[in-house]
Structure formats: C-alpha cells, structure tokens
Write a structure and sequence with these properties.
By secondary structure, this protein is mainly alpha-helical. Helices cover about 50% and strands about 10% of the residues.
C-alpha cells in the first residue's frame, strides 16, 4: 500500500516535470551523452569596430582635454541663449533651469553656474529679489576677441575652404558639411555671405547647398604632411625612399606592439599612394595593393583636413559628411582605429572626437594659432572653478596695506586687540566700494528676468 502511494507520487512528479519543468526546484540536467560534465562551446572573440574602440590604448591627457572642451562648449551654448534674449543682459536662474536639457547638462543649472564664478556673475535682483545670472566681463571680452580674430582672418578662412575644395572629387562641397565644422575651421557664422559670397573669383555657389571651386591654385598643392617629410629628410638625413610616403607616428604610452607589427608598419609607410592634391582618380581596390593604397589616400585626406582645423580635432560623425565629396568609400571609424599612431579617438563627452596625435604634446597644441590662444584663455577661465585668482600685484598691495596697518596700530601703543579694528574697517570699505557697482549694473534693465 505504501509502495503504491510512493509510485503514484513519483509518477505525478515526473508528469509535472514533463509538463512545466520551471515550476520545480530540481537542477536542470545538461544536454549530452555525459551528464556529469557541462559541455560549453568555445566562441571566437568578436573583432568589430566597437571592440577595437573599447580595447584601444587610452590617452588620459587627450581624454581630459576633450572633457574640458565639452564643458566650454556647454558654457558657450548658455552664452548664446542668454545673448539671444532681447530683454536684458541677465537671466533669472529659474528661467535658466529650463535650458538644462537644451545644453545637455547632467546637473542642475544653479549648481553648474555656482561652480564657475569666473564665468557667471550671480546676483540678487534689486527689485524682484530673485537670483539672476549674467556673463562675466572677462569671458565676454574673450568671446568678443575671438569674433574679432575670426573676422580679421577671412582671407585665411577662404584659403582653408579652397584647400578642401581642391581635395574634393569634383571640386564641389556641400555647404552643410562646412557648416557642421564651421567652428573647427575658424569660419565666421555668416561664412556663406562673408567668405563664399565675397571671394567670387575663387568660389561659385552652384546651388543653395553646393559650392564649387572656380580656379585651382598651385601654391596650395602641398599638404602639411609633405612639409614634415621635407623637414625629416633634411634634419635626420633619412633616405628619400623612407620619407617619400611616410606619416608621423606617435603611439600613446602603454601601446602594445605585437609580433610582426613593426614590419607591417614599415611596409605601409613606404607604400605609394595618390596624395590629396595630386588627382581625384579613385584607386581600384582589385589592383595590386589597391585596397591599402586606397585606405592610405583616405588617411592622407583626413590628416590634411584635421591639419586645416584650428584645434586639430573634429567629431567623427561630422567628418563622415565629407566621405561622398572626397570619394572616400570607407568606414571612417574603422580607418581611424587602424592607425592609432596618427589619430586618436576620444569617447569623452558623449561624442567620438578624432584628434591629430602629432599636433599635441602634454595636452596642448604644439604650434598654436591666435584663435586657439583665445579659446585656451576661455578654457583656463572655466577651469579656475571656485578658486580665488587675484593678481599677484593686488595681493602684494593687500599684504603691504595690512602690514602698515598693524605697524601703525602697534606704533600708537594700543592695547591688545585694538589693532584688529582698522583692518576690519579697511575690508568693510572695500566691500562698500564694490557693492554699489554691482547694484548699478544689476539695475540696468529689470525686464530681463
């Protein structure tokens, strides 16, 4: 009787397992002839652009630079939004909090503004008694200085655009592609009228969004990498065969060189290719070494485009808009990852930015230009944060003034503690002198908040 009950219970358990084995807590039996061992199939690791991007050698200095530049771009977006307001030069923090998603901030607007007192001036509105914000005079001056330099360098901007048109397949470029890298090329905001429309002997607008080169200039037919080759040939006494088609290679610290990598790199450096300004013919991939020559030409064109920019860096997504005009039928991100000694891709700041490695040393541009110098001053002002940065001369004057007060106090045979009073009075006078100026500036227009 007991055995029959047990067998019935066992049959019910087997039936339950057969119907829905997930309802039971019994361990699952692995599939295979040998149930004592777990059989796992070995999978070959994936080798894609994403895996190569994640496993690349990190350059901490360039990553830190792109992080700082993202913060500067965010501040410039806030400055643009504040400048577009017609009511006044300042905005209430309550209104600025609505711009958090527009400028792409991960923190509150009030917290971000208070972290940069050298860029933003926060004050209390004298009438409405709410917190308002305006751009500091130093930062405004640097922005105005950059705009003046961009206007003064219109001829240089025209030369850069002309070089890009000479590299294109048909001597044409889309204006939208130029607009995307306008700031990188140092072009003015109205470059369509001030550059493309002004220099009609060089450019012709075929369509609303297409610009065409009128006449080529043979003086612009030398790429920046060719100037480096000539310098290497003269200074290091290298053979012409070694430097004729070579590129400057600078691997990041900690880069692992695998077996056979040096030989491949040496063969690639000596591989002939069509230079960016030589011709617009497309190399046949099926020819002898055609694929490598085609990729090397694309590397040369991206190298030249980055050399024409102000800060020698461009976002990868914006760089891809030149593929069709330049005749580069390649995966741009794949190509950049294949050449880590020439380009570096930084993933900081929620965007992929390609940087020309040879142009930077210790996070700074080796050959700075006037526009870069002004932008670097803006960045330095942003990186000051909440630190107090008075000028050295002002600090010495404050020190000398306090010392003289102390000496005068002790010279008058005052009691202990009485010499502190004139020092506090001097600081009160300084504060009283500063406050009225802020109130006057804040009460210029009350309708801005």
């Amino acid at each position: 009787m007991i055995l029959s009950k047990v067998s019935k219970h066992h049959c019910l358990l087997q039936f339950r397992i057969h119907i829905n084995p997930q309802e039971t807590n019994l361990p699952k039996i692995p599939f295979g002839p040998f149930n004592l061992f777990i059989q796992r199939r070995w999978k070959k690791p994936a080798n894609t652009a994403q895996t190569r991007l994640e496993s690349r050698t990190i350059d901490s200095k360039l990553n830190r630079l792109t992080t700082y530049l993202k913060k500067l771009k965010t501040i410039l977006k806030i400055y643009e939004l504040m400048s577009n307001r017609k009511r006044g030069p300042f905005v209430s923090l309550q209104l600025m909090s609505r711009w958090t998603n527009i400028v792409g901030l991960n923190v509150g607007m009030g917290e971000f503004v208070h972290k940069h007192p050298h860029v933003f001036d926060v004050f209390t509105h004298p009438v409405r008694r709410n917190l308002c914000c305006r751009i500091s005079g130093k930062f405004k001056g640097l922005v105005s200085e950059e705009e003046g330099l961009v206007k003064d360098c219109e001829l240089e901007c025209a030369k850069r655009v002309k070089r890009l048109l000479m590299m294109s397949k048909n001597g044409r470029l889309h204006v939208h592609a130029l607009r995307l890298i306008r700031r990188e090329l140092g072009l003015p905001e109205d470059f369509r009228e001030s550059v493309l429309g002004k220099y009609k002997e060089d450019f012709r607008l075929v369509d609303l969004e297409i610009v065409e080169l009128v006449d080529k200039d043979e003086n612009f037919g030398v790429a920046e990498v060719e100037k480096w080759r000539e310098k290497e040939y003269r200074e290091k006494w290298l053979s012409e065969f070694e430097t004729k088609f070579a590129f400057p290679i600078n691997f990041p610290t900690g880069f692992k060189i695998e077996r056979g990598f040096r030989e491949k790199l040496k063969n690639w450096q000596m591989l002939p290719y069509l230079k960016p300004y030589e011709g617009n013919e497309v190399v046949q991939v099926g020819a002898c070494g055609g694929k490598n020559r085609y990729e090397k030409r694309a590397v040369a064109m991206i190298h030249e485009l980055l050399s024409l920019t102000v800060e020698k860096m461009v976002e990868v997504e914006r760089l891809a808009h030149f593929k069709k005009d330049f005749g580069m039928e390649v995966n741009v991100r794949e190509l950049l990852l294949k050449n880590p000694g020439i380009f570096y891709i930084s993933t900081k700041g929620s965007t992929h930015t390609v940087i020309l490695r040879e142009a930077y040393s210790k996070g700074c541009l080796i050959e700075p230009n006037p526009i870069y110098v002004v932008r670097r001053k803006m960045l330095d002002l942003v990186l000051l944060g909440c630190r107090n940065t008075r000028e050295l001369q002002a600090e010495e004057e404050i020190k000398n003034g306090s010392d003289s007060l102390i000496r005068k106090a002790f010279a008058g045979n005052t009691t202990v503690g009485e010499w502190v009073v004139p020092i506090l009075e001097s600081f009160d006078n300084v504060n009283d002198h500063d406050d009225p100026g802020e109130i006057i500036d804040a009460s210029e227009e009350f309708d801005g908040c």
